[in-house]
Amino acid sequence: MYRPSPTSGPVPVVPRVLVVAPEGGRSALVESLRDHGLAILVAPDEALLQQVESGAVDLVLLHTEVTRARQDLVLLRTVSSVPVVVALRESRASLEGFLESGADDCVGSGVPRSELAARIRAVLRRRQRPAAGEVLRSGEFVLDLARHVFLHEGNVVHLPPKEFGLLELLLRRDGRVVSREEALDLVWGQGLGSGRSGDPTTVDVHVKRLRAKVELDPATPRHLLTVRGLGYRFEA
Q: Per the confidence metrics, is the pTM higher than 0.70?
């Protein structure tokens, strides 16, 4: 993420993260993330949507208890596709529900601040905004990347971020095989050169969910095809 400077060459753009936390700007997490090079913004509860819709932030970090985080996530997903990371205050809370509801990443209490900052940067890399108006089309599949909207046979189909990213990757490959390891690296930020070991079955689960939404007969798919021993490929 770079913005050209007329006098000093490329200058890194500091990601703007809007933190939602009970302590507001007094949160120890806020200071720690600032120390890790992130520009942290804190808005009053009533200004959350206003800040997001203004385009003033690159990512929202929900650092609250489970019920509040779930409410804010649902609210955000009704109006925006802004990347959202959930950092729960409870250590034993279930994370899966947040990922299924549209969070780009979710961690429980106790995760090191350096890892959380790294996860935020990874989400931002994966969700870099595409060129305005960029749309992928293949047969009856249409992905409007700028608006994060998927249409199948003219109908809008809701896809959580990981399913959307996986389908985008498959469409961009234009019939070529995508291995599970590649998908883990490019969509989840795990595996290959990331230094993090992901579970390949995660990809299998998300392909199964995609098939349930777009295939007439998910048991005999026509579009999201398995290439035995290699991975998956897309066929319009």
A: no
